[in-house]
Amino acid sequence: MARVKHTKQKRNKGRFSASIATLLIVVLAFVIFLYRDKLSPSSLGAFSRDRTEIMISSEPFTYENGSKQIFALMGDKLAIASSTGLQLLDDNGNTISREVFSMANPAVRCSGNYSAFFDVGGKSLRIFKDGQSHDFDRETAIISVTVNSSGYFTVTEEEAGYKGTVTVYDSDLDPLYKWYSGSGYALDSVVSPDNSMLAILCADSSGSTIRLFRFDSEEELASVSIKDELAFKVNFTKNGNFYALSEKAIHFFDSSGNALSSYSFDEYFLANYELSDEFCAVVLSKYVSGSGVTLISFGTDGKVLGSLPLSEEPLSLSSQGQKLLVLDASSIALYSGDLRMQKKNHVTPGFTSALLLPKGNVLLLSSHYGEKCEFR
């Protein structure tokens, strides 16, 4: 088993005010809300059968109908988390695994052939590796779980006497590193694509702080502050840069923590997002009602790749490489990373989500069955 490095941040000796405690509750509630809404079922649609752009390439397949369903892709396999447990299906809709357990706020994170099913605010955690499920249930509440393309997992969770901990597991699922937060509530964490760095996002009295560590040292490499913003997500890009997303802006940094660029959402609301190590995209809405919508994509250096006004708010985003699939209530479209449209088709009510497969096929998913389609 790998030697675990334990690093502890000195605890703040001062008394935290009631407003800071309230801030934590608000932040955690916001994180759970975003995790839920990003992939939650809503009134999406199915491809119109009288269109020639889409061909149904498989018979419908079924799965369990649990509440609060969350869909994701583990390679070309469909991962489903719900209030009643997890399911994993192959690309033909055949069930690979089904486990029954309770999750109040189900979530699933996938990368390559690795996946993690977990309960946000609960203690249930299952990790899939090499086709096998591993029980990693926790003793304290889970805040977030991530997995990178090499199969390195991070688990951010509560810890008595601290403001959270982050545990890193390598691709063999051996514990590699553990960090205890003494100041700033740990909300998210992620390992870089080359497995050399760890980024940890914390909320504190000034806003948000991202702390960087290398696994060959117990000393903090660098930290960056995002003033007056409650960031909820941090992610690395394929070239080692990283970025943080809040409800107000998205911020990009190089591997040393130097600021590259920031994009303020100004008076717009963050309605949806898709984050990857290739590029990222955000959906901004001028009104809470979902009108006045703009889709914006960013490269790994934070530069805007494309900006596109939309007629209505997207209900689902899914990416593969430099491709982005956008589903709204009346149409589905495939874009390049710079938002040049490649395919588009009308939709009719019926399905609840759409995922872009590695080979360009599309999974159409309802609450209890799905179909695999392809663009002609």
The CATH topology is given as Methylamine Dehydrogenase, Chain H
| CATH homologous superfamily title | YVTN repeat-like/Quinoprotein amine dehydrogenase
CATH hierarchy class name: Mainly Beta
Count of spatially separate domains: 1
**How big is the Rg?**
20 Å
Describe the structure.
The protein has 1 helix and 35 strands. With 376 residues, it is mostly beta strands. The protein has one domain: Methylamine Dehydrogenase, Chain H, CATH 2.130.10.10. The strands form 8 sheets. Strands 1-16-15-14-13 form a 5-stranded mixed sheet, with no helix packed on it. It has a 5-stranded antiparallel sheet with strand order 2-32-31-30-29, with no helix packed on it.
What is the strand and helix layout of this fold?
Layout (H helix, E strand, L loop, with lengths): L4 E4 L9 H22 L5 E3 L6 E3 L4 E2 L7 E5 L2 E6 L2 E5 L5 E6 L5 E6 L2 E6 L5 E5 L2 E4 L6 E6 L5 E5 L7 E5 L5 E6 L4 E7 L5 E8 L2 E8 L5 E8 L5 E4 L5 E4 L3 E5 L5 E6 L4 E7 L4 E6 L7 E6 L5 E7 L5 E5 L2 E5 L3 E6 L4 E9 L3 E4 L5 E4 L3 E7 L1
Write a brief caption for the model:
The chain is mainly beta.
Question: Features of this protein?
Answer:
single chain; 376 residues; mainly beta; Methylamine Dehydrogenase, Chain H; five-stranded mixed sheet; five-stranded antiparallel sheet; 51% strand; globular
